[in-house]
Specification:
It contains no helices and eight strands. Strands 1-2-3-4 form a four-stranded antiparallel β-sheet, with no helix packed on it. Strand 5 and strand 6 form a beta hairpin. It starts with 16 loop residues before the first strand and ends in a 9-residue tail after the last strand.
Length: about 120
């Protein structure tokens, strides 16, 4: 992207999720010998890579898999500055609400059925 090469990209081909609502894409890179990873939101029009770091988790590992697969990631919604990405695996569903302006993320664990945990 713009001559930059990214290594340790999670998931499988195409290694990113298109986000047409914001004219962008989402992908995740792992840090070597670390549980930290970077969530990248690349905005094509602005030629800008917004990076938000997470400490642990499985986000990005389901990129490239069909939405009905046992492990998958997808963009649930996108309206700047917020983008919601969901990761599902065999045991849980996790919703990540990213604020691209603040470079923050709220993480919500859901039951595999999609119902919220807690009350």
């Amino acid at each position: 992207m713009n001559g930059e090469k990214f290594e340790n990209v999670r998931g499988r081909r195409p290694y990113h999720l298109e986000i047409p609502e914001i004219d962008g894409m989402f992908f995740v890179t792992s840090k070597q010998k670390s549980t930290n990873y970077d969530c990248h939101f690349y905005l094509f029009r602005e030629k800008r890579d917004i990076v938000i770091q997470l400490q642990s988790g499985y986000l990005g590992g389901g990129i490239g898999y069909p939405k009905d697969a046992s492990v998958t990631d997808w963009v649930e919604s996108a309206k700047l500055p917020k983008v919601v990405v969901v990761h599902r695996n065999l045991s849980e569903v996790t919703k990540y609400t990213f604020d691209l302006d603040q470079r923050t993320v709220e993480i919500e664990m859901l039951h595999p059925s999609g119902a919220e945990t807690g009350n």
